[in-house]
Amino acid sequence: MEKPLSLIGLDKPALNTALVAAGVPDKAAKMRVSQLWNWIYVHGAKDFAAMTTEDGTRKWLLRTGAGIEFETVYIPEADRGTLCVSSQVGCTLTCRFCHTGTQKLVRNLTPAEILGQVLIAKDALEDWPSTAPGRKVTNVVMMGMGEPLYNFDNVKAALAIVMDGDALALSKRRVTLSTAGVVPMIARAGSEIGSSLAISLHAVTDEIRDQIVPINKKYPIAELIEACRTYPGASNARRITFEYVMLKGVNDSIADARALVKLVAGIPAKINLIPFNAWPGAPYECSDWSQIEKFAEIVNKAGYASPVRTPRGRDIMAACGQLKSESVKQRASERMAELQSAELARMPH
Question: How open is the CA angle 44-49-53, to the nearest 5 degrees?
Fold first, then answer.
C-alpha cells in the first residue's frame, strides 16, 4: 500500500502540484493551497475533517409591503463585520455584470427601511448595545441593491443615524457609500454625508465602460475621475475605493492594469479587485486566477493597495453583484384593479 503523502514541509508550489495530482482543478488549486497553509500552520489542523473553512455570510430578504422586497448581507471577517445595505428595490442602472441590474426599479427605500436593515441584522446577530466593545457590525457599506445617489435624501437621513455617536455610533470612516458614477451628486455626498466613497469603476476606457456600466454614457470616465480628485475629505487616511470586477477577456489585460494605475494617479486610492460572481444567464466569465494575480501585481507595484476580494456568499447568491429580489413594479392600473378586487371580496354577498 502506497504511503500517504505528508503535506507538512511542502512549500506552496509543491502543495499546488500535490493538489492537482489529486484531481483538484488548476483554477481552484491556488485557493486551496492558501486554505491548507492557513489551517495547517495557523490553526494547527491535523486532518482534513478539521479544516472547516466556512463562509459565515448571512443574507436577509426583507419585505415591507406587497411587492416590496430587498436584501441585506452580513459578511464576517477576522478583523471586521461588514453589513451590505440596499438603498432601492431594484435598480435603474442595468450594469451588465450585476444581477440586481436585471431587475427594474420598483421604488426608493425610506430612511426607516434603510435603517431597518441594520437593526434587523443586529437583532439576529445579538449585537446590542450598539456601543459595546467587540460589536459584530463594525462597518456599513451602501453596496446592496440600487444606486444610493439616486436616493440621496433618504440615504443621507439614514446614514446620519448610523454615524450618530448617540445612536448606532459608527465612525464616518467605517461607513462607505458606493456609486456607479452619478457625478453631479458626488461632491454633495462628500460635503453633506461625509462617509467614505467607493466607485464602481470596472473599466479604464469609455468604450468598455459604456458597455458594462451604461451610466458612463452620461458621465464618462474623465468626469468621474475629476469628481474623485475633488471629493471632500479624501486623504491618505480616507482613501477612495475603486471597485473593479474582473471579467475574462473584457477588462483584465495587462494593458488595462497599467491604464488603471495611470487613471487614478494622484488620488488617495485603494483598488478592490473583485472576481466576477456568476449568476444564471450572466453574459461574462470570471478572469482566470493567474490573470487576476498578474493584474494585482502591476497595481501593487504602482503603490496602490489592491486586495483581491475573496468571493463571499456565492452559495446563497449573496456575493457582490448577485443581489436580486422578486419584486416587480406594478402599473397604477394593476394596483387599482387589485384594490378593487379586495374591496369586492370584503363586501357582503
Answer: 70
Structural domain containing residue 294: 58-316
- Whether 115 and 157 map to the same domain: the answer is yes
Matching residue, cell 421604488: 107
Which of 69, 71, 113, 147 is the catalytic position?
A: 71
Whether the Cβ atoms of residue 57 and residue 120 lie closer than 8 Å to each other: no
**Predicted TM-score (pTM) of this structure:** 0.75
Q: Could you give the number of structural domains in the chain?
A: 2
Residue 274 and residue 238: Cα distance in Å, rounded? 21
Query: Same structural domain for residues 176 and 246?
Result: yes
Of all residues in the chain, the percent with pLDDT exceeding 70 is: 83
At 279-301, the pLDDT tens digits run 777 889 999 999 999 999 999 99
Given 95, 98, 228, 320, which residue is catalytic? 320
The sign of the CA dihedral 327, 60, 339, 345 is positive
Residue 242 and residue 103 in one domain: yes
Please say if 77 is a catalytic residue.
Answer: no
